[in-house]
Write a structure and sequence with these properties.
703 residues; Rossmann fold; eight-stranded mixed beta sheet; five-stranded antiparallel beta sheet; 34% strand; globular
């Protein structure tokens, strides 16, 4: 059927009041054509994919559908009387200066700063006086160009960095002369999932061959390579340092140790587990030596002490440890403990001055242990409170380092540490119109369906009455070894300022409690993640923090899958569902861009046993004709991580099947990607819409 545009599709949106909740009825969504001929056979099970045509993100028909859906969503949101109030609150609260921790390079420091109104943070350089080094806000009129991956050459004369347009994972690499601040002619295209590592008069980076024109944001990414670029030469002259022509679905990263002694290349088949190869760069014509040949664990060389390699690993250590070895005895059975595994999780180790700073996560809170270079424990770093420390940054040859600290109610502040006497002083504290003393955070535990004890952080204004009437947002992720840690967010602060409770559940699938916690929420254990989240929602209701009518659930990416799965399994859990940039078609996710790399976490529908598991929770395939909560799906047109087709198809199916009077909307951001590099003005617009939709459908009026 032909798509109906706004003037035809949107009849009058009727506004009604029922009890304390206001609702729109009669949404008249755009018609979404169903192609009944598209049927896939999965090991004898026939699955229709009527919206396959929405996977073509460059077609005119998809473009018309996107425009029509956005018109419906914008018309709905524009009727919410306090939407502009929330936008102003976000704008006002975000208007504070922030400053990143500095990094030292020879005689100068580099750091980022935002005056509170800038879309992108500006990079500064400081010898004696401070001056602008790089301003991404001047690279595009709308602030959608972002910069990342700054890397200064070992002689401090050059800086390479990566530029992204509209939030895409594709990066362009450029090089600046640090004396003149002029760009060199060097320019690298089609880099993706890459670092920048200097060696001699050039640098290592990773990338792909140029993609098919018109399919840059959807085609499967294959044959990832490590290159070496020599300054002053064309990209066509770049040397391929490492490639694997027999395994197109592997990612590769290359980096040199700080002293230029070793080149390390890691290869991965997914988001966990890697092989590792090391070359001695001090010896001419040396070959790569295989240190790890399987994908059973996660390991990387964090540093070296002469010929000795220090390796960060979870091999025989689910909570991670530091081991050491040499290329004479490279394989895992020869590794020896440098910092042994503990009963809490090691997250990283930094060497600054003549000390090692080991960052741990203990009950999802930072613990920093300080060691001598021989591995002898000295003391713990005294932190400003219970929260998250970024880890210590600095150089081996300096006695000064920096770290930052944040919590759910404390904006990120920076501290300066003397690594000789281990004393710290405040370096920068933002002046923000938010008083942490007015709020409280508690960590509770509850039982999941299988009896596992699950932690959850709950943050809200002090003195809030727990009578089941509080608007509450429950957030989770639960996957890919990603730890969801306490941190301050302007968006969440605005929610709490308006009487909301913000709850973050520590789901299995993450790395908050090590690899065992991760494995308990992946592959055939994925249902544990959804059960944990459902149990968290029920805990909040059972203990009168909130009620079904006042509960909203939110997650992004893998967390978008979480919300999609939970709302289709337990549609009465919450009143509002907010799946963002979610993986929602579990049978075809691996067909697009980097999706194949997630098969180690989810399994693949190409495998019969995995298919039987995936079909049980794939959100798209479990939508039924029932009453769903008010739903606003969020995606973006340049998302080349989780392609927007996931959200398009899920929205179409929800609009077809939902039997409630609640809205099933989709918000499709233009010139934006998976989230990284999104300018502040777009973030303010997005979260004004999110909170307006949430509060409105929870029956809460913002005054």
């Amino acid at each position: 059927m032909k798509l109906r545009l706004l003037a035809i599709t949107i009849a009058v949106l009727f506004f009604s009041c029922s009890s304390d909740k206001q609702e729109y009825v009669n949404y008249n969504y755009p018609d979404t054509r169903q192609d009944t001929t598209v049927i896939d056979d999965y090991f004898g099970t026939k699955i229709a994919d009527s919206y396959r045509w929405l996977e073509d993100d460059t077609s005119a028909e998809t473009g018309e559908w996107v425009a029509a859906q956005n018109a419906v969503t914008n018309a709905y949101l524009s009727k919410i009387p306090f939407r502009d109030k929330l936008k102003q609150q976000l704008t006002d609260l975000w208007d504070y200066e922030s400053k990143g921790t500095p990094s030292k390079h020879g005689d100068y420091y580099i750091y980022s700063k935002n005056d509170g109104k800038q879309n992108q943070s500006v990079y500064y350089i400081k010898y004696g006086n401070e001056e602008i080094l790089l301003d991404p806000n001047t690279m595009s009129e709308d602030g959608t160009t972002s910069v990342s991956g700054l890397s200064v050459s070992n002689d401090h004369k050059y800086m390479a960095y990566m530029v992204s347009e509209s939030g895409s994972d594709w990066k362009e690499i450029v090089v600046m002369d640090m004396n003149s601040k002029e760009l060199l002619t060097d320019k690298i295209n089609w880099s993706k999932f890459s670092g920048l590592s200097w060696y001699n008069d050039g640098f290592y980076y990773s990338g792909y061959d140029a993609p098919e024109k018109g399919k840059e944001f959807s085609n499967k990414n294959e044959y990832h390579k490590v290159f070496y670029h020599k300054l002053g030469t064309s990209q066509t002259a770049d040397k391929i340092v490492f490639e694997d022509t027999e395994h197109p679905l592997r990612n590769h990263g290359g980096y040199a140790t700080e002293d230029g002694h070793f080149l390390i290349v890691t290869a991965s088949e997914g988001t966990s587990g890697n092989t590792m190869y090391v070359k001695d760069l001090t010896k001419s014509n040396s070959e790569f030596i295989t240190m790890i040949s399987d994908f059973d664990n996660d390991s990387y060389v964090m540093d070296n002490l002469g010929d000795t390699l220090l390796i960060f690993t979870n091999y025989n250590a689910p909570n991670k440890r530091i081991v050491y070895t040499t290329l004479a005895n490279p394989t895992k059975e020869n590794w020896k403990d440098y910092i042994a595994e503990k009963d809490y999780v090691l997250t990283n180790v930094n060497i600054v001055g003549n000390k090692m700073f080991a960052s741990y996560l203990k009950d999802v809170q930072s613990k920093i242990e300080i060691y001598q270079m021989d591995g002898t424990y000295l003391k713990d770093l005294e932190l400003p409170g219970i929260g998250i420390c970024s880890g210590i940054s600095g150089d081996k040859g300096e006695n000064t380092g920096y770290y930052s600290f944040t919590s759910f109610t404390t904006p990120r502040s920076s501290y300066k540490i003397n690594t000789d006497d281990l004393t710290s002083e405040l370096y920068f504290k933002p002046a923000i119109d938010f008083n942490p003393d007015d709020y409280v955070t508690e960590q509770v535990r509850f039982k999941s369906k299988d009896g596992e004890s699950i932690p959850m952080f709950i943050t809200h204004k002090k003195g809030l009455k727990m009578d089941g009437s509080n608007p509450t947002l429950l957030y989770g992720y639960g996957g890919f070894q990603i730890s969801i840690k306490p941190s301050f967010s302007v968006t969440n602060a605005v929610f709490m300022q308006n009487g909301g409770i913000y709850a973050v559940v520590t789901l299995r699938g993450g790395n908050e409690y090590g690899e065992a916690w991760h494995k308990a929420g992946m592959l055939n254990n994925k249902q544990n993640v959804f059960n944990d989240f459902i149990a968290a929602g029920n805990y909040l209701k059972d203990n009168k923090y909130t009620s079904t009518e006042k509960l909203a659930i939110h997650g992004r990416s893998n967390g978008g899958l979480l919300v999609g799965a939970v709302m289709t399994q337990e549609p009465t859990l919450a009143a509002v569902a907010l799946p963002g940039v979610g993986v929602l078609d579990m049978l075809r996710y691996h067909k697009f861009t980097i999706g194949w790399a997630w098969a180690v976490e989810y399994g693949s529908s190409d495998n019969e046993a995995d298919f039987k598991n995936l079909i049980t929770y794939s959100p798209l395939h479990n939508v039924k004709a029932v009453d769903y909560p008010a739903t606003m799906i969020m995606t973006a047109d340049h998302d080349d991580r989780v392609v927007p087709a996931h959200s398009f198809k899920f929205a179409a199916e929800l609009q077809k099947q939902n039997t409630s009077k609640h809205p099933m909307l989709i918000r499709i951001e233009a010139k934006a990607g998976h989230g990284s590099g999104k300018p502040k003005n777009k973030l303010i617009d997005e979260w004004a819409d999110v909170w307006a939709f949430t509060f409105f459908n929870l029956g809460v009026e913002i005054k």
